[in-house]
Design goal:
By secondary structure, the chain is mainly α. The chain contains 16 helices and no strands.
C-alpha cells in the first residue's frame, strides 16, 4: 500500500459516536444531490454558505511555474505565514527560482536567507528531480491525484501536505482536502467548534465533494 493510501485510510476511520454527534441532514443526503457549479454545491451547506457569500467565487487555476510553487510549499513547511513570507521574499530577492539556479547556488548563501540546513537539502532534492526529468509536470496532467502524490513524496522533504498543496495550487485539482494543514483545522474549528479531529474533518468534508479544494480555500479565508 502506498503512503498516500495508508494516510487516507487512517484518516477515514472514525468512532461511531463521532458520526452520531456530527452528522447532519445535509450530510445524509449528499449521495442524492446532483453535481453542478462548485459554488452552488458549497452554498448548499449551511455552514459554508456564509463564507462563499462573503468572499464570492475563489477561482482554482493552474500555476504557470510548477517548480516555483513547489519551492514555496517547501519553504512554508512548519512555519508561520509571516516567517515563511519573509524567508521566501529574501530567497526570491537573491536567487532565480529554477532548478538549475538552486542547484548552482552556494549552500551558505541559501542559509543566509533564513533556510535551515534541512530545507536547503529539500530544495536541492526537488531541484534535482525537476532538472533530471524525474518529476515532469506535463506527465501529471493525465495522472490521478493519488499517483501524483506518490510521485512527489518520493522526493526527499516532500510529504503528503506539500504534495496536496501542489495538487491544489499547481495542478488546480478540484477535489483535494489537506486535512494535515493547520489552517484547515482552524477553519473547521471556526465553523463547527473546538471538538474536531482529523477523522471527523475528513468525514465532514465528504459533503463538499467533488469540490473539496474550493471548500479548503474558503476554510483558509475563514481564518485569514
Amino acid at each position: 500500500m502506498d503512503r498516500f493510501a495508508a494516510t487516507q485510510r487512517l484518516y477515514c476511520r472514525r468512532p461511531a459516536a463521532a458520526v452520531a454527534r456530527w452528522e447532519t441532514p445535509f450530510q445524509r443526503s449528499r449521495l442524492h444531490r446532483p453535481v453542478t457549479d462548485p459554488y452552488d454545491v458549497l452554498r448548499r451547506d449551511p455552514a459554508l454558505a456564509p463564507l462563499v457569500d462573503e468572499h464570492g467565487p475563489i477561482p482554482l487555476e493552474p500555476h504557470p511555474e510548477p517548480f516555483e510553487r513547489l519551492v514555496t510549499s517547501i519553504v512554508n513547511q512548519q512555519l508561520s505565514g509571516a516567517s515563511a513570507a519573509a524567508i521566501h521574499g529574501r530567497l526570491t530577492g537573491r536567487f532565480e527560482l529554477t532548478p538549475s539556479a538552486l542547484l548552482a547556488a552556494d549552500e551558505a548563501a541559501l542559509r543566509e536567507v533564513g533556510l535551515s540546513a534541512s530545507k536547503v537539502d529539500y530544495l536541492r532534492s526537488a531541484a534535482e528531480a525537476f532538472d533530471s526529468g524525474r518529476l515532469d509536470p506535463a506527465r501529471f496532467e493525465s495522472m490521478p491525484d493519488e499517483a501524483v502524490v506518490e510521485a512527489l513524496t518520493e522526493v526527499r522533504g516532500v510529504g503528503v501536505w506539500t504534495a496536496k498543496m501542489f495538487l491544489i495550487f499547481v495542478l488546480a485539482r478540484e477535489d483535494v482536502f489537506p486535512v494535515e494543514d493547520l489552517g484547515i483545522r482552524r477553519g473547521m474549528q471556526a465553523l463547527f467548534g473546538d471538538e474536531v479531529d482529523r477523522d471527523w474533518m475528513v468525514e465532514r468534508a465528504v459533503d463538499w465533494a467533488p469540490y473539496r479544494s474550493y471548500a479548503s480555500r474558503y476554510l483558509w479565508r475563514a481564518v485569514d
